Amino acid sequence: MTQFQRFLAKRLAISVLLTLVAVSVIFVVLRLLPGSPFEALVTSGNLNQQQINEIRSMYGLNQPLWQQYVSYMGSILTFEFGYSILRSQPVWSVLEPRLVNTLILLVPALVTTAVLSSSLGMYVGWNRGSFLEKFSIISTTFLRSTPVFITGIFFIIVFAYNLELVPAFGMRSVTASPEGYAETFLSVDFAYHYVLPFTVAVLYYSGDFLLLARNGVVEKRGSEFLKLHRAKGLSEMQQLARAGRNSMLPILTYFALRLGMIFQGLILLEVVFGWPGIGRELVLAIQQQDYPLVQAAVFIMALAVIIANLAADVLYAYFDPTVSTNGSGSA
Amino acid sequence: MSTETKPKAELYKRVDRIQSLVRDQFAFLRQDRLAFAGVLVVGAFVFTGVFGPLLAPHDPIEYTVRDQAGSILRLSGPTGAAVLGTTAYGKDVLSQFLAGARPTLIVGLFGGLGTGAIGFLVGLVSGYYGGWVDEVLMRLTDLTFSLPFMPMALLLLTFVTPNIWLMTAIIAGFLWKMPARVVRSEVLSVRERTFVKSARASGASDFRTMFYHVGPNVLPIGFLYTAYGVAWAIAAQASLAFLGFGDPTMTSWGRMLRQVFESGNMRIAWWWVFPPAIGIAAVTTSVFLIGRAYEEVINPEIQTDQ
């Protein structure tokens, strides 16, 4: 095995272990805290004791805890999520369309902002002290530090309520009843609903990319290899392109991390805009104590982050020769 | 350390030192106009957080604004009776705004301090000892990274009645990972420096070396992340309250926004939306602007010639 392979094997093992621990934590939080998903049904008086027992045994809640744990681990790690308690549908058929809605909103937003804000960041880092630098830093500081639902509320008030350019709520008009993904997402009505949350998401993500790119270029600006390029007679823009290329790595890994976190959705953005994504669904499921749905959703979110983390680490180790691949990969 | 022999003189010296430290920081922040504006906003926020409930003209929850005829004044714009208008339930927006600053301040301050303190200690211990201690602590931070913060916080808050101290604990319990990683990587470079090695060689214990020799050198970055922690905690608290998982007995800015959103009055009642929304946005932005001014100084890698 080469050193890189050994590093890869170690990181893989850690990721698998992390997944197991994370899944166990979810189990513990859900089962050991007081409150039962059926309490709501019982107190509403719709069920008698026998029916409760039947449902409990159907969901395996009458078994000892360790047996529940074993069967839970077995099913969740094979992506068998079971039935949603309140929707009486397989959990996956509830979650899948919601997850798709979230990804269709956030992946394009993330890609857009990664390209635009990083380029802008490199440009202002090169022209340090310019008005554009100050302005872009203040505005992105505001956008990334303010909770996303507040930015969303400002945008709704301006563009939906006062200018009345776009609708404020939902993903499709109430009357629209499209069949299948293609029909849902390829329509003018959808585009109308899409613009505002998409813009807010782009702006919300922009700050970190802009600062990463700017700091990267600022760091490189005084370095020897750029002096050489200047001596060779390259133009300012050509020099910037080379400085920028050398500060791509943190941006790339940050992009991978963000991509993993996208599976959580932007809960608050989805709530404010009434976007039927996975984050909003999770909030609803938590409020209604729909355990199977909650544990499946949180599991998907955790898994995505773990995989993205792994990808980021491997990217870094692969591209950056100064990161040691033996030991802990610390730098 | 000769505090026992001349306690008074030593005390004066310390007070002097603190005074000049404060004066230096103030002078530094004056140079950066943005950071200075941030300081003013944060100052006003702390003032409102401490004295707001006393300044509020009415009780934010109990008191109902009425017009001359005695009927409840619902959703009225700013008038003489209610300077910032009223809510859909006839409550005074100004009073709610002033009283709502306190929970925001408490969670922000203690959540931030907790985040900074835990993260600093974990990073220091992890980086200083290395080996299996480092491995265990860093895998623990990986775990908190992989468990999504917002969903886990929501879950924990459904099982227990939320109160602000619990929220503070949950927020700090999830956010410490950020400073921990940064502090650790700073410690890794500091511990290789000569003065640390000579302290070890002259017989200083691990504990002493860690806190007296390594600690102070990574303290600035710890403070920086404590400040960011404050902003994160304020944002997290507002977000949780907005989703309806806040302390039900207290008015906070996030809860005000939830009420206006839930009651469906966002379209008309701008006087009800703007005070809490602008309040939160201004405070979090200001904290970041102050932090950024320090970051330019602390982070050695972006200190090239201007």
What layout of secondary structure does this protein have?
The complex is a heterodimer of chains A (331) and B (306).
Chain A: H1 3-32, H2 39-43, H3 49-58, H4 65-77, H5 91-126, H6 131-145, H7 148-162, H8 180-185, H9 188-221, H10 224-231, H11 236-246, H12 248-261, H13 267-273, H14 278-287, H15 291-319
Helix pairs in contact in A: 1-4, 1-15, 5-9, 5-12, 5-15, 6-9, 7-9, 7-13, 9-11, 9-12, 12-15, 13-14, 14-15
Chain B: H1 7-31, H2 33-55, H3 93-129, H4 131-146, H5 149-159, H6 164-175, H7 177-190, H8 194-201, H9 206-242, H10 253-262, H11 270-298
Helix pairs in contact in B: 2-3, 2-11, 3-4, 3-6, 3-7, 3-9, 3-10, 3-11, 5-6, 6-9, 7-9, 8-9, 9-10, 9-11, 10-11
Largest sheet of chain A: none
Give the integer mean of the pLDDT values of chain A. 79
The first-to-last residue Cα distance of chain A is: 23 Å
Q: Helix count of chain B?
A: 11
Structural class of chain B: mainly alpha
If you compute it from the alpha carbons, what radius of gyration of chain A comes out, rounded to the nearest whole angstrom?
24 Å
**In percent, how helical is the residue content of chain A?**
over 70%
Number of strands of chain A: 0
Give the full name of the CATH homologous superfamily of the largest domain in chain B: MetI-like
Spatial shape of chain A = flat
Task: Give helix and strand order of chain B, one letter per element, not per position.
Answer: HHHHHHHHHHH
**Interface with most residues:** A-B, 60 and 50 residues
Helical segment count of chain A: 15
What about the largest sheet of chain B? none
The fold-level CATH name of the largest domain in chain B is MetI-like fold
Intertermini distance of chain B: 41 Å
Protein name (chain B): Peptide ABC transporter permease
Family (chain B): Belongs to the binding-protein-dependent transport system permease family.
Domain ABC transmembrane type-1 (chain B): 101-291
Membrane topology (chain B): Multi-pass membrane protein
